[in-house]
Every structure is written in structure tokens, then in C-alpha cells.
Structure to design on (422 residues):
């Protein structure tokens, strides 16, 4: 007969020793669980406001494409909402608009899944009869969705190939990028139709520096080149500044096997005059072999200045003749920079010292010495978007100090010789 404990008029059996033991165990377990959960929550709370870590995509999986994938927020967002009411292309801009280039919006777009007509097997003409010549650039600021809808013939990842003829080369357009979505969204609706009229087989690569700190265009050129070659065997690389809007479609985006081409001698910013005779900035084109021959661009220029002149010298040092588009065709409007936050794009105070040692270190500074992380590869409707991370200190140290900084050396970049081509 079990004893009973009675409280008021409710009695229940007194627990046995086993039951007591189980109760103690249960209470202890519950206590441990509660303590654990409280601790976990405090850890969660502490980390909640941290940014989601960037998933590193291993280099062998570059081909994985999923544009519906959730966007991973990074330190460097495609947000550029600092401009209000200001002209974009000089005074031509009429439509004032704030645009949010939040990339989450971009990648909610459904993949275009269409079939294309078979291509006509006929070599594309050197200069298609459909060219318009000089054109007034579009200065409207479109949203991403408007842009995606405007170009149904551009395949995911920003690839386009003409159907009415066979182009002689496959071209990768490399656009170094960070926090300039207004510039990018102004460039695309001007560049894409022009390339289509020119029968260019192109793929647009937006190469974004995912690392904070000074912008390094040379690294982005090099990484863009290496990553693009994992996507396809491009013959021609056009290195295109995001703020340079072409305004004459006779400026054919083609490489030249003789030497690298400077496409942008005339820019509105310099009153459409050649800024100086050695100018090699803005838009330049290298065949895949030419860029490899010069070991790509220097990785050492952090911030603004020097890197374009250095790139030109690397071609000269490797005996590549410099070519330049003629003044009638090689003409651009630069997007007005007023109001754009441009941290990381400050004048590099060391640029001349680095410039002086360019020739000495060309063989140990460039494609063959670059160490970087592939932070993301995303396929958007109009371009392949690649994030590149690097450690500036580490990269700088890949080159011995005596080859990095010089007090003597040639500064005669103002007078390089170019051959004018059509
Ligand atoms: C793409 O990503 C979305 C969201 O992460 C997922 O639901 C979908 O299955 C993925 N599609 C493919 C083809 O991997
Ligand atoms: C850019 O816009 C400002 C006014 O917003 C104007 O003063 C300036 O001249 C413009 N720059 C160029 C290069 O058009
Ligand atoms: C694309 O279309 C093909 C053929 O119609 C189909 O087999 C495939 O599943 C489609 N892919 C997507 C992602 O809708
Ligand atoms: C195109 O035509 C040429 C001969 O006119 C032929 O040699 C070549 O194989 C054809 N190419 C394709 C892709 O059909
Ligand atoms: C390539 O450059 C040479 C000059 O060295 C020029 O004669 C030729 O027309 C150029 N080719 C193209 C396709 O521009
Ligand atoms: C690449 O990312 C890894 C993991 O976050 C990090 O340890 C490494 O330092 C990074 N390397 C470079 C070159 O940025
Ligand atoms: C960057 O590289 C330097 C030099 O190799 C190293 O000391 C530093 O820890 C690295 N930083 C990161 C964040 O990996
Ligand atoms: C440019 O060409 C001129 C005349 O051919 C020559 O005297 C000069 O040295 C050349 N300049 C450079 C930087 O090669």
C-alpha cells in the first residue's frame, strides 16, 4: 500500500525513489536547456547585426548560375542613392530621379529561357551598313527591371551574339566597378545597342571590388581577365571605365592583333580634345595574347592615378605598337560625377614613385602575382557580376620594396607615340 500525501482535500500517491530520481534528472536537464538557450540567444543577439558572411564560391564552380539565388549582402552594395537633381551627361540630362540599385532587386528577376534562331553562316562585315554614326546618348536613368526588359536578345550573364553573321572574335567587356550603379545603368543602355549594331559577340563582366579601402582598377582588370577566361575562350578584352559613354558607333569595339587600342581619345570632360598625347585611359582593348604578354596590369596602384599610364608602358616595354582610334569615332561623354560618393578613389600620393619602377617589376607584378578571392559570381540579365576580394598589404608585399618605389626613372609618359586607326 503506497503512502499518500494530502494537501487540503486532494491526495496523490507519494513518489517512489525512482520517480524522485527521474524528477531530479528532468529538472536538471530543463535547467541546462534553459541556460543553454539563454546563452545561445545572447550570442545570436550579439551577432544578429553583423553582416551575413560572404559565401566563397570555389573557383571550379564558376559556371554555377542561379539568378534567383538570394543575394548576399556585402560591405559593398550596389546602392547609389546620393545623387539628386543633377545633370548626368553634362547638361543633357533632363530626367531627375533617385534610383536604388539594391542588388536584391536584380536577382529576383526570372531567368530568360528563350531559344534563338540559328546563325547565318556568313562572316560579319568590317563596318556594318546599319551603323548610325554619332548618336545622342541616352541620359535616362532606368531601373534594373526596365533595362532587363529593354534587351531581350541579351542572354543571362550579359552575353550577346549576332544571328545574321559570324563575328570574327569573341569579346569580353571588363568593367571595374564599385558603388557606381548610376554610372553602370547609364552606360548599359548606350553601350549594349551600340555593340549590337556593330555585330560584336560580347559578354559584359562587371568586376566589383568587394574589399573596402582604396579602389584598385589594375587588380580588377587582371581578376576580370582571369575569371572571364574561365567562362569562355575570349579573343578580345575591352577594358571599359564605367563612366565612359561612347557616342559614336563607328568606334568599332574590335581588338587589333598589331597592338593594344586606345578607344577614347576624345572626352567631353576635356572639351573633346586629347588630354595628352600618351593618354591610355578610359577604354582600351587588348587581344587575349597581348594582355598575357604584358603580364596584365600592375596590381600596385591603390586609388586614383598612374595605373593607365603604367598599363600603356607595359605594352611599350613588350614592344607592342600603340594604336588609337581616330578623332571622328573615338569620342565619349563622361558621366558627371557631381554628388557621387567616391571613397577609395582618392588621388594616390605614391603614384609617381610606383610609376618610376614599372619596367623593373613588370615580370613580377601582374597576372602572375595576383592573389585574390572570388567573393561571388552572379548571373544577372545584362551582365556577369563578379566580386573580387584581396588583401592590399599582402598584394603590395608580393613585390620587393626596391621594385615598388623609385625616386628615379622615366616619367616621359606625356609623349608616347600612337598609330591612328579607323
Ligand atoms: C536557385 O535558387 C533558388 C533560391 O535559393 C532555389 O529555390 C532554386 O532551386 C535554385 N535553382 C537552381 C536551378 O539551382
Ligand atoms: C556636372 O554638373 C555640374 C552641376 O551639377 C556642372 O556644374 C558641371 O559642369 C558638370 N560637369 C560636367 C563635366 O558636365
Ligand atoms: C528552359 O527551356 C527548356 C526547353 O523548353 C526546358 O527544358 C528547361 O527546363 C527550361 N529551364 C528553365 C530554367 O525554365
Ligand atoms: C560555314 O561555312 C564554311 C564554308 O562556307 C564551312 O567551312 C564552315 O564549317 C561553316 N561553319 C559552320 C559553323 O557551319
Ligand atoms: C589594325 O592596326 C593596323 C595598324 O597597325 C591597321 O592598319 C589595321 O587597319 C587595324 N585593323 C583593324 C581591324 O582596325
Ligand atoms: C580570402 O578569404 C579567406 C577566407 O575569408 C581569407 O582567409 C583570405 O585571407 C582571403 N584572401 C585574400 C587574398 O583576400
Ligand atoms: C593581410 O596580409 C598581411 C600581410 O601578409 C597580414 O599580416 C594580414 O594579417 C592580412 N590581413 C588579413 C585580413 O588577412
Ligand atoms: C615618338 O616618335 C618620334 C618620331 O618618330 C620619336 O622621335 C620619339 O622618340 C618617339 N617617342 C617615344 C616616346 O617613343
Amino acid at each position: 500500500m503506497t503512502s499518500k500525501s494530502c494537501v487540503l482535500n486532494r491526495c496523490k500517491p507519494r513518489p517512489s525513489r525512482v520517480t524522485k530520481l527521474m524528477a531530479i534528472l528532468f529538472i536538471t536537464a530543463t535547467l541546462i536547456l534553459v541556460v543553454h538557450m539563454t546563452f545561445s540567444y545572447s550570442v545570436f543577439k550579439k551577432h544578429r547585426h553583423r553582416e551575413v558572411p560572404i559565401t566563397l564560391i570555389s573557383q571550379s564552380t564558376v559556371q554555377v548560375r542561379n539568378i534567383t539565388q538570394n543575394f548576399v549582402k556585402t560591405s559593398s552594395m550596389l546602392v547609389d542613392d546620393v545623387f539628386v537633381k543633377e545633370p548626368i551627361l553634362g547638361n543633357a540630362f533632363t530626367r531627375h530621379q533617385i534610383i536604388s540599385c539594391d542588388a536584391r532587386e536584380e536577382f529576383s528577376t526570372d531567368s530568360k529561357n528563350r531559344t534563338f534562331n540559328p546563325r547565318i553562316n556568313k562572316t560579319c562585315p568590317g563596318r556594318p551598313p546599319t551603323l548610325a554614326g554619332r548618336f545622342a546618348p541616352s541620359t535616362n536613368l532606368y531601373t534594373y527591371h526596365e533595362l532587363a526588359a529593354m534587351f531581350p536578345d541579351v542572354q543571362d550573364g550579359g552575353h550577346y551574339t549576332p544571328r545574321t553573321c559570324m563575328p570574327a572574335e569573341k569579346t569580353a567587356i571588363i568593367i571595374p566597378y564599385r558603388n557606381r550603379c548610376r554610372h553602370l545603368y547609364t552606360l548599359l543602355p548606350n553601350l549594349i545597342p551600340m555593340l549590337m549594331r556593330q555585330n560584336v559577340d560580347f559578354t559584359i563582366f562587371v568586376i566589383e571590388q568587394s574589399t573596402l579601402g582604396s579602389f584598385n582598377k589594375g587588380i580588377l582588370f587582371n581578376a576580370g581577365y582571369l575569371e572571364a577566361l574561365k567562362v569562355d575562350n575570349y579573343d578580345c578584352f575591352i577594358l571599359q571605365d564605367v563612366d565612359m559613354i561612347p557616342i559614336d558607333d563607328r568606334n568599332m569595339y574590335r581588338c587589333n592583333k598589331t597592338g593594344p587600342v586606345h578607344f577614347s581619345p576624345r572626352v567631353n570632360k576635356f572639351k573633346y580634345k586629347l588630354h595628352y598625347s600618351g593618354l591610355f585611359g578610359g577604354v582600351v582593348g587588348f587581344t587575349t595574347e597581348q594582355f598575357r604578354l604584358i603580364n596584365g596590369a600592375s596590381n600596385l596602384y591603390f586609388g586614383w592615378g598612374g595605373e593607365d599610364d603604367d598599363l600603356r608602358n607595359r605594352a611599350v616595354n613588350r614592344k607592342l605598337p600603340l594604336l588609337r582610334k581616330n578623332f571622328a569615332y573615338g569620342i565619349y561623354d563622361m558621366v558627371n560625377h557631381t554628388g557621387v560618393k567616391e571613397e577609395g578613389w582618392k588621388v594616390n600620393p605614391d603614384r609617381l614613385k610606383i610609376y618610376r619602377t614599372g619596367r623593373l617589376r613588370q615580370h613580377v607584378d601582374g597576372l602572375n602575382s595576383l592573389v585574390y578571392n572570388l567573393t561571388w559570381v552572379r548571373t544577372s540579365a545584362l551582365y556577369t557580376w563578379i566580386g573580387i576580394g584581396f588583401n592590399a598589404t599582402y598584394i603590395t608585399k608580393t613585390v620587393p620594396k626596391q621594385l615598388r618605389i623609385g625616386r628615379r626613372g622615366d616619367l616621359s609618359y606625356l609623349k608616347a607615340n600612337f598609330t591612328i586607326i579607323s
